Amino acid sequence: MNADRRLRQGEFPARQILLASLAVCAIMLVTAASRLLTGKFPDPDDVLRLVQVRDLLAGQGWFDVTQYRIDPPSGTAMHWTRVVDIPIALLIAAFTPLLGQPGAEKFALVFIPFATFMVSAFAIGSLAWRLLGVRVAIISVLACGFLPALLFQFQPMRIDHHGWQVAMVAITLWAISRRNARINGWTAGLAMATGLSISLEILPMAAAFALVLFARWWFDHKQRGWLAAYMQALSLGLAGLYLATRGTSLTAYCDAVSPAHVAFFLVAGLGTTLIAQLTRLRGFGMLLLFALVGGAAFSAYALLSPTCIATPFATLDPLVEEYWYRLVFEGQPLWKQAPSVYVPALLQMLAAMGAAAALYMRSDLWLRAWWAEYLFLLVASVALGMLVARSLAFASIIAAIPLGWLTSSLLARIRQQGAPLAAIGNAIAIILLLAPMTLVLAARAILPPEPAAVEGVASGACDVYANAPLLGGLEQGTVMAPLDLGPAILLETDHAVVATGHHRANEAMAEVIRTFLASPDEARVLLSGSGADYLALCTEMTEIQLYANVAPDGLAARLRGGEAPDWLERVELGGPPQLAVYRIAD
Fold it and tell me: Residue 224 above 90 pLDDT?
């Protein structure tokens, strides 16, 4: 268990890891083929990301990430970064002359998620090979294909930013396993700076990596260069990416990297560097110095942005919080998900933590210390995933290696053991390890059936992505539509929408919700102030069903029952009857 292949680069199994990665990509492509052909995006955020890239290619300013067709005429300033837009835009621009824009977009929708997966797979495969050998490296990459939280972020058409953040976690994990503190500390810091520039959601992982490097310093003063290099790269990389993507804007937002965040990390990076160079204090003295640096960094943050000390979602309108934010389940705690989601996820994470603990116990010297760090990062990422379900993807990429090692060990036992019952037992263990959903399926066969799930935004006869183009035949205007329908309208037509499910349009989102919940007479007053020319909805959408259940006499319920007030003129577009489009009378 003390083999270290860090200096044996010529033996790196690049071809095997590539083939394993391509196998996972092929499976994802096959399973998503029908959705890819029909243009059904995994999430409305992926739709709006493509809209943002189209606007950039059409000439919108590099530093201007405002969506002018959301809540017109002023529009809505998005919290998304150009970092994620760059590869998508480059691919579309490069392949449009060959494939046309629709074909180039299709290519980008497949290539980008797979490229981010390949980056993650090579980082994980390289790390697993150096520590555990070729076989474990290959199985670890293949194990990624059995982790649902991970697969969701890398599936075709998933071009939103979460896959890139997973890749940054994988690169950082790989970097801190290397030997050169300066080079690899900088690599880790730049990866986390990129992840933070994409979204602040990765901040807890950046802190977890910093704690690991702090522990190295704590136990061995000679290792102080790791944390110093990491914080230097993190702070300077964050500042550089901010200037490159936001310019010199001093506008303070709480939900994305702003001057206050840059100031925090610059102070923290400078303080860490000074402590590393000017003192050899240990124990309480060292903690005191870092406490002072942390206090100074927080003071800089609070001074520049005092309103951002609270969570960015603290100022949401109560209607938006109740009928949107709390229902975005991927952003809610894991225990609020369906049992079919959290039970398999927890089983895999518990198995991964147990395997990492076993690797720690089987090792000694530097490798024992490494597996202790690894186990801490895995536990920290699982804890984050418990609080925010979609962050379980970070835990999943870290869990891939211990799961790969455990699977490899069970396979070896099957080959070595002659007893059929033992082989069957190990085979069952592998199935439960890689596909714990089998337990859920077995439980469903025995227990009473659960209530049927409500149809999703793109399901049923009124496929929003297939039918949104029908609205393009109407004279250009502003559409009052459910929040989940808005991105499809923006993608497929030239219309504007009152709001989409993106929190910076907080007031407009509340206006949409309030309108659909209101009585027809109240809704007419609200619509007259919204500037909307049309009202559109799919009557079977989850969102509309929710409004109808909450307000049985509200506008959504009336429209769902086919009872349109006389101030709404039905527009027939040739779509399914569930697609209801109205012209709003003056």
Answer: yes
